[in-house]
Amino acid sequence: MTRPTRERDRTGTGRLLAGAVLLAALALGGCGDMGRFQSASSAPGSGFVPLKQNKPAAQTPATEREHERILSSYGGSYDDPKLEALISKTVDRLVAVSDRPDLAYKVTILNSGAVNAFALPTGQLYVTRGLIALASDTSELSSVLAHEMAHVLAKHAASREDQARQAAVVTRVVADMGNDPDMSALALAKSKLTLAGFSRAQEFEADGIGVGISARAKFDPYGAARFLTAMERNAALKAGRSATGDPRSMDFLSSHPATPERVQNAQASARQYNSSESNERDRDAYLSAIDNLVYGEDPSEGFVRGRRFLHPNLGFTFKAPEGFVLENTAQAVVGVREGGTQAMRFDVVRVPSEQTLGDYLNSGWMENVDRSSTQDITVNGFPAATATAAGDQWQFRIYALRFGSDVYRFIFATRARTPESDRSFRETVNTFRRLTLAEIQAARPLRIKILTAQPGDTVESLALRMQGVDRPLERFRALNGFDARATVKPRERVKIVVD
Hints:
Layout: E1 6-8, E2 14-16, H1 17-25, E3 48-49, H2 61-73, H3 81-97, E4 106-110, E5 117-119, E6 124-128, H4 129-134, H5 138-153, H6 156-159, H7 168-174, H8 181-190, H9 200-216, H10 223-238, H11 252-255, H12 260-273, H13 283-290, E7 294-295, E8 303-305, E9 308-311, E10 316-319, E11 324-328, E12 332-337, E13 342-349, H14 357-361, E14 369-379, E15 382-390, E16 395-403, E17 406-414, H15 419-430, E18 433-434, H16 437-442, E19 446-452, H17 459-463, H18 472-480, E20 493-498
Parallel strand pairs: 4-6
Antiparallel strand pairs: 1-2, 3-4, 5-6, 7-19, 8-9, 9-10, 10-18, 11-12, 12-13, 13-17, 14-15, 15-16, 16-17, 19-20
Helix pairs in contact: 1-2, 1-8, 3-5, 5-9, 5-10, 7-8, 9-12, 10-12, 10-18
């Protein structure tokens, strides 16, 4: 969660421009889901990997805007010279053996822990650092890049119809959230509005083309099947903590569903190319390139630890009610209670210093606010105000709290407002406080660390060295492509997550 660009609307209410950017981003022609919002540069050195271009890509103001929207959606670009060099070299090899070596491609590494990759019809390819962390060798990464190139070559990206799907709980809430377009936009974003997936036939076609490109580039053609399997394991890890009921939201599987048939299809395609000349995995070089890669959320945008949200850069923290699962974007934090009976949103707006918080709550950004319920309060020494509002299906308790030059909003939605729900919501607002210096200094990103297994090391003992993650044993297996029966060999290099 960062401070978005703001402008003053006619009522004096702060409007988040990023909300409009989100809705426009849904018109993208590539694969993927909309996630974090943060401005970023596409200048050299910002994670934008230029390739040798025989023919310039057809860039227009519209495609440049789409590129900027993608950067906003996924936390900007990720700057890592080692990774940029590896990906540039890999794509050069793939392009050289493709059916259209004259086509130009550009690859952007996105600063997102989501596991995703997608392409625009112009040949712009995108891959998240989360996907890079999950892949175990260059052949697996090449399978993803080749798959996305295949969508461009087969013109799938240009022909696919843009659609979106939305999770049930927040779908119902959005209609009641009033006439603030930015609030509705974020609710839609966090209900996992996603670009529609390619058809089954298109995915199979892209798999076949991609495996062929990788094999002709001398990469192990089985990399695609291994990575699809890793994605299924990763999705299973997320299943228990998704706030939307879709364990694969924001991931590659959302737009590239991995079914047993797809894995079998990828294996069958690989067998056509299986030879001693096309079996390069390049595991050691790949692991060296991803050593120290940021893993998961970037603390600079704030991060979730259980029910607590901490933002070191902005200097505050709060704790959600019992039973809530929080999810963070740079634009807002949203949460849904298990069972879907309550939801919440936390964000930042700019309110003129001369406007009281009570007046702000009644300024029209939310419909059906009960003016008689408006109260001025204090939260841990910070001036605040609260009010209630009613929708067709949801009841709302809203808070505005002034912290420094900004005003933060807590918007709680419940099916039926009761004294118990009001007390729970107030207790959450009362947990809003400044972070201590020690807490700020301790807020470091998690990173991938490459270890060399020693004699006596086991999957279980190495998993115990994982830090800052849930289900470390299962996550260790997923990160390293190990099934339940796999063992670690002495001198084998493996990935762990450290604080």
